[in-house]
Amino acid sequence: MLDDAGLQALREAARLSPDNLPLRRHLADQLLAKGYLAEAEAEFRAALVLAPKDADVSAGLAEAFVRQSSFGEALAALEPFLGEPGCPPRLGVLAARALLGEGDVAAAAHRYHDAVTRDPSLADPALAARLAAPPQALGGPAPYGGAPSGPAYGGGAYDAPSPATPAAEASAEVERSRFTFADVAGMEAVKEALKVKLLLPIQQPELFAAFGKRAGGGVLLYGPPGAGKTHLARAAAGELGASFVNVGLADILDMYIGSSERNLRATFDLARRNRPCVLFFDEVDALAARRSDMRQAHNRQIVNQFLAELDGVDQDANEGVLVLAATNAPWYIDVAFRRPGRFDQLVFVPPPDASARAAILRILCRDKPIAEMDYDAVARVTEHFVGADLKGVVDRAVEAKLQQSISAGRAIPLATPDLLAAAKSVRPTSVREWMATARNYVLHANDSGAWDELMPWIKAKW
Questions:
Q1: Are the beta carbons of 237 and 244 closer than 8 angstroms?
Q2: Domains along the chain?
Q3: In this predicted model, what pLDDT tens digit does every residue of 247-293 receive, in sequence order?
């Protein structure tokens, strides 16, 4: 309850005129100045709805967070502006305070000195003294590069600082894919999107150069598990005749602070040395999760490093590097990754329809002895099956047929009844569960329109 008559009058005025941005900002500023931090936070949030890109409103919200020791939330509020050229110096000082609260002294000092260099009037002697103090004197978590006390990935802990090592070498390996789009059944719309975004700029560079389009970029493939996202990535590399680097979590994440970022940089450098190259990140939500959900500064640094590598050190750094990523949970990925120039194209990889299922079965059976086969009949009884499920059906049918062949002493070919019998014993893995989650986001958390592509599919089938 506010005990200030002036603030009560301002709040009542804002209630009667909820869309009056100047009034709401003034109320939020007054609440912040008088120490009503939770109330100020609520008003800044309301103002941010009216003006999502207002740097002053974001700065006010960040200051309310910092003064409540909610440092991670403060950095999340500032993030859309910190990476832009000409970021207001005031935001840099706020970021320094938040980073210092998180224990990332080096990054805090960099932000502070950059801001004060551009606007000396923002100099804060107390903050500068804390940034210059030895880490042990600051209290709280150890600085980035030391041993923090909080949890790390998977509930473990960082027990020691990273040892002094030379520049990291990528543990991921360069491959040559033997698949092309001819090996991908159905999904014509998805393949066409990949061709236009990733392949054609390299295959027809003169045409794209005429329109100022460069070879490179990022596409985020999302959809239920087992729908063929990894297979699509390999096929894209094979279609282009490019190198393929399949990046797993074990290739990036490391128990020592700073090593994960070095591994990420080394992986991008590997792709740049082997261009044209398709660089594929599977389960990318583990590396690109929303920073507002992270409690530790070192976790956010991995996201920041990922964003920096996607942008490249100059405009030509990633030319010829085609970055593909796949996830089953796109709604957990930091929104900064969807900015133009990064993963600006989200491509939904749906479960296969009946004709695509028949085509998948045909591909899976093409190197096996088969009798007359009615793939359409099998496709009709495998609704909601994804490619991984269909492979399980074929594998189970082959195992049963192998037993018969061993008893008969000769190879007995697969037939339609074998696949139908196997299909009855296999349940679709996760499509229903995934679509239930997707439906909630599409219908109740789609203010930005990010999931509009899912809307027709969900309404038609679910």
A1: yes
A2: 5-139 (1.25.40.10), 174-348 (3.40.50.300), 354-424 (1.10.8.60), 431-461 (no CATH)
A3: 988 888 887 777 888 888 899 989 888 888 889 998 888 888 777 65
